[in-house]
Design goal:
By secondary structure, the protein is an alpha/beta fold. The protein starts with a strand and ends with a helix.
């Protein structure tokens, strides 16, 4: 299966992607995780994107598209993958379509969440990380989140219409309890596979 998760920061994409990844034994490819790893490793790419990530800016289409293209080409993604955090623009979606060629995405899953709930989730995630002795993500702060939400509305929200026109979009209420959202996604994927 080849899947994409859409949704604003804090919508639960990573949580739900982990469920689907385990259920279907496909790698969960989080562009946020890939980019944070580059920053932590001190790579040339990491150094060039660190400030943009901390301030909540989108990474340049060419940069993130090359990272995704490289990752999708690895052997563990040959049988399928789940993209979380990519595409974020229509231009990236066009690139992904050309990268996949004749292979089409099986489904694009969008988690729709009220913005006030998103802010509460991000604050709770940062507090839990700090309470556990970890370091909060550089982009887990209110100023960065507000900027990321604004960018999401202008840059990423148009993907809803893009994938709806292609008949690939499945929207869910991400405000619902985690188990309910998971059941909805797994049920839809089982239906697609004729199970």
């Amino acid at each position: 299966m080849k899947l994409v998760f859409l949704g604003p920061p804090g919508a639960g994409k990573g949580t739900q992607a982990a469920v689907v990844s385990k259920e279907y034994r496909i790698p969960h490819l989080s562009t946020g995780d890939m980019l944070r790893s580059e920053v932590a490793a001190g790579s040339q790419l990491g150094a060039s994107i660190a400030d943009d990530m901390q301030s909540g800016k989108l990474i340049a289409d060419e940069t993130i598209s090359s990272v995704v293209a490289h990752r999708i080409a690895l052997p563990d993604a040959a049988a399928g993958f789940l993209l979380d955090g990519y595409p974020r623009t229509v231009r990236q979606a066009d690139f992904l379509e050309s990268l996949l060629g004749s292979v089409k995405l099986d489904l694009v899953i969008e988690l729709v969440v009220d913005p006030t709930i998103l802010i509460e989730r991000i604050q709770r995630r940062a507090a839990m990380t700090l309470a556990g002795g970890g370091a909060a993500r550089a982009d887990d702060n209110i100023d960065s989140l507000r900027k990321r939400l604004s960018i999401y509305q202008t840059e990423t929200a148009p993907l809803t219409e893009y994938y709806q026109r292609k008949g690939q979009l499945f929207r869910l209420n991400g405000d619902a309890p985690l188990e309910f959202v998971s059941r909805g996604i797994v049920g839809r994927l089982a239906h697609l596979r004729g199970q």
